[in-house]
Amino acid sequence: MRSPFMNSVVKIFPLFMSVAFLSGCESLQSVDRGLYSAAEAVSERDLVTGQRTLSMASRGQQIAQGNAAVEQILAEQKKAGKKTNAALDEKAYQRVVRVFDRIHRVSHLANERWLPVLIDDPSFNAFTTGGTYIVVHSGLMKDLKDDAELAAVLGHEIAHTVANHVFERQTHQTAALIAGSEAARQGGYQAAFTHESEIEADKIGILYAALAGFDPYAASRIWERQYKKEGSAKGLFFHSHPVNPERALLTRNVANQVKQYYHDGQQNPEAAALLDNNALWRKGSESVEAGSGGGLSAILGTALGAYAQHQGTKQEASRQAQQIQMMQALDKQVVVVGEKVIDQHSWQVVWENRSNVSLKDVVMGVLIKDSTGKVSRYVTHVAGNIKPAARFAGSFTLPDLKVAQLQQMQVKYYLDDATPVR
Ligand SMILES: [Zn+2]
């Protein structure tokens, strides 16, 4: 399932996106120790906090490797006869360049020469590969409402490189292989690791947006909109990205903290000093304690809770596993009791809550598999508190599909999200 902001790791290093299920993470603490001794030899100070982050590649090597990956994508686009940048969409490209320049100027990597690239791809996505390119899909430009939302996306992407996520992930993978750890290779752990990288990138990116004079609440607006559109799919997957409602809340909390630095349309005159010390982090020189996690994540705390890197990843993986179990148990107890066609493209479903808890914030989803095997997912939000034994209705509208066609397809309803109330 594609999400916005899906970063380079997915596209460039599919090796690291193995999908597997979690069985246990007992060995993570020893992995952490292993990483610590690896860090002795290969660490560098991370740009945001001055703390150690893992990397086996120097920045120069990172740029060469990251940029080669983007250049390969550009060559493939050209071969496929696709246009890029101004030739693709002059207005959109100018907008990317203009907003990017303002964000980049206040970032930790302002001294590097970066190049934004607009490519022809309908999905809602932008990514970096750890070098000095930032790639924006044309589909993203169509769905964004204003410059502040674009600034939120671009800030988030620069932040992935600043926080060394692409290469940190490679190094984690290598170290885990050396340590012979099963846990770190498993999907749950990998997803949780990315999950935290996403939160870090959100924090840093929203600070950049505020310093550059863009509304810091734009990121949370994007996630609220995503939630309305696609629900959260909590019951279905381990999440490499925080689920939409959670991310809307987290980004709103960050905005609350950095709005003090935001002057509409203007760069904050103290921007450079604020990069080191601000409401989110303080540049320090504390050493990383072996076995207790460290790296950039040690800066987290204020609004987001403790997400120290490895411990946090472990906790996050088990939290997700619990949540998935709970949703799957509830899913069996929310039963379809009726279906009714509304018009050519819409139909209504009635469910019954056969669990012994009330449910609120209910999102019901439907998976539709067509004859080619392609699966599409749609959601409907249900208002109110649904008591045990109560029935409730939701409707789906598919502009590109006639309800009658569904008879030839596989249709499966599921509980996408819910908050149990006891
Ligand atoms: Zn990201």
TrEMBL record:
Protein family (similarity comment): Belongs to the peptidase M48 family.
Residue spans crossing the bilayer: none
Superkingdom as given in the UniProt entry: Bacteria
Molecular function GO terms recorded: metal ion binding; metalloendopeptidase activity
GO terms (BP aspect): proteolysis involved in protein catabolic process
Matching Pfam families: Peptidase_M48
Classification via InterPro entries: Mito/Outer_Membr_Metalloprot, Peptidase_M48
Protein name stated in the entry: Peptidase family M48
Cofactor list: Zn(2+)
Source organism: Neptunomonas qingdaonensis
Stretches assigned to the Peptidase M48 domain: 94-248
Entry annotated with the keyword Hydrolase: yes
Record keywords, A-Z: Hydrolase, Metal-binding, Metalloprotease, Protease, Zinc
Cofactor note: Binds 1 zinc ion per subunit.
PROSITE patterns, per database record: PROKAR_LIPOPROTEIN
GO CC list: membrane
Keyword Protease attached: yes
